[in-house]
Amino acid sequence: MVAGVFSANAQSSTTVPEAQWKAGNYYYLKTGSSVLSLSGEKADSVIVKTLASDATKAAIDSALWQITNAGTTPAGPVYQFKNKKTQAVLSFAVSSTAKPVITSGVNQWTFSDAAGGSAIQAYYGNNQILALDVVGTDLSLGSSASSTKFTVEAPSDAMYLSASELGD
Fold first, then answer.
1. Could you give the CA distance from residue 134 to residue 129 in angstroms, rounded to a whole number?
2. What is the CA angle 22-153-142, rounded to 5?
3. Fewer beta carbons below 10 Å: N end or C end of the chain?
4. Longest dimension (CA), the chain
C-alpha cells in the first residue's frame, strides 16, 4: 500500500496575470482570503469560503475554475468559468436579484481591470450589469459595478491527500 501526504496547503497560491492563463488549467478566483467555490452541501450553490490548510481534495476541486476565453465584446474579452469538481459553467439567471445558484442565463464574464484585482461582471440586455459582490462571507449578485476585487491565482502544485483520497 502506498501512503503519503503531499506537503503544501490549499491556501498557498500565486497571482497569475491574464497573459499567463493557460487553457486546461484551473485557478482560484480569490477575494481577500476567500475563494469563489461551489457549496459542498448543494452542488449548484455558489459561495465564497476560506480553504483550510488541510482542506480535502473535493473542497479544493470545488473552488477551482477553468477560465476559457469566450470572445471579445465592446466591454473587452469575456470568459467562461468551469468548475473542476462538477464541470458546471458559472451561470446565473438574468436578473440582478437572482440568487447565486447555477442555472442557465448569464455565463460570460469580464474583469473590470486585470491589474491588481478586478470586479467580475457580465453585461446583458441594455448594458445592464450583473456583478459578483462579496460582503463578509456572503456572495450576492449586484446590478451595478461591484467593488469586490478578485484575483486569479494558481493553486499550489501539491496538496494534502488522505489515504482514502488516493484511491485504490
1. 16
2. 105
3. C
4. 60
